[in-house]
Amino acid sequence: MNKKELGEIKRSFSEGCGFFTLNHIIYAYVDAEKNVKYNAVKNYATMPEEEGAVVMETLKKALSGSLGKNLTEYAFPNESYEEGGAQHTLYNAVKGKFTDEEANKAFIDRIVENTDYQTAYAVIAGHCTYSILVKDKNDDSLGESDNDYNFTVTAICPVNTGDDGLFYDSEKGTVEKKSNTEMIIARAPQDGFLYPVFSDRSPDVNKVMYYTRSPKKPNLSIVEDVLECRFEFTPDGEKERFHTVLTDVCRDELDYTVITKVNDIIRDVIDQNKNETEPPVIDCSRMRTILSDAGVSDEKLTALDAVYEATVGDNALKASNLVENKTVLSVSEITVNISKDATDKVRTSVIQGRKCLIIDLDDPSVKINGIDTTIETAEEVTV
């Protein structure tokens, strides 16, 4: 499922779209001990308007964010297709359109039994139908097709008491603290998933899209246990492995110039592919080219294949997770932030036996602690 396909579903996910219908909704409230305290199926069309608006908002948020960060596509392993497996369970739920009690129970049970949450939470899942638009090679719409994309969007939302502090009591005319025991379901899901994915303008029942509000802390129990998929690196995890490869391969050649050039090249890769439907990735072959262009010697690059395999495996790293928007140079007690357009104004050198950081100032006016000042011209030092 690429950016264009995801964007099409996001844009269509609205009551105002004549090609989209939100059919039935499953509610489940689960306490901290994994007990299902409430479970119901509702017809979205007959819901009160305010309730329906909240449901629509919550489900749409389970499709928010960007691919590779908040949203990650996973392929099911072979065992998921067996009876009771994740793919088998999700497929039956979609097929039953949330009107099959047995399929609904298996769907909710799979989530509840395998999700690791420390507190209570709510499951809100919607069965949806999108009448797939026929488009020409220029991506212009030619009208509605005979094929429907039936899918589910599931949002897993935190629950809390919504304790807002002090309350004004209009009857007493007083301000005081009250205990609020009503459990409020958050409108923004912490986790969720879409099944099946929309790929090549048709449903792909062999894959699922996982959503997390916190890319740095995805819920592994949902990915690995509920969906039975192989977890991939977090964005930070990809960056850490990338740094490891750079350090182990380049070693003593890894200086300011190489680091900033590598970052600039990866940024160029992203810019050159910004209109592509698939986000650019960096595999071992592409990393070899990047490091070579940044000035790393052929001698150092002989170790790249082995280091990459040991650190990253057969995965490719998403370029957007590797690039830095600014360069941060730090030593003990000093940190210098350098914007992406100013890396060429900074260099390192050795002056009179001391390691120095040199910053070119085109304008002699500078600010120190927010105060305007100037740098006086002194005797020129040859570097």
How many strands, which pairing sense, and closed or not: the largest β-sheet?
8 strands, antiparallel
Structural class: alpha+beta
Compute the number of helices. Answer: 10
Radius of gyration (CA) equals 27 Å
Assign a percent range to the helix content: 25-40%
| SSE order | HEEHEHHEEEEEEEEEHHHEHHHEEEEEEE
Global outline: globular
Describe the structure.
The chain has 383 residues and is an alpha+beta fold. The chain folds into 3 domains: 3-232, no CATH class; 236-321, no CATH class; 326-374, no CATH class. The protein has helices at residues 3-12, 49-61, 86-96, 101-114, 220-226, 235-250, 256-272, 284-293, 298-301, 304-311; strands spanning 20-30, 36-43, 71-75, 121-135, 141-160, 166-169, 174-177, 184-185, 191-195, 197-199, 202-204, 207-212, 281-282, 317-318, 326-331, 334-339, 346-351, 354-359, 365-368, 371-374. Strands 1, 2, 3, 4, 5, 8, 9 and 12 form an 8-stranded antiparallel beta sheet that branches. Strands 6-7 form a two-stranded antiparallel ribbon. The longest helix is centred in the C-terminal third of the chain and has 17 residues, at 256-272. The protein starts with a helix and ends in a 9-residue tail after the last strand.
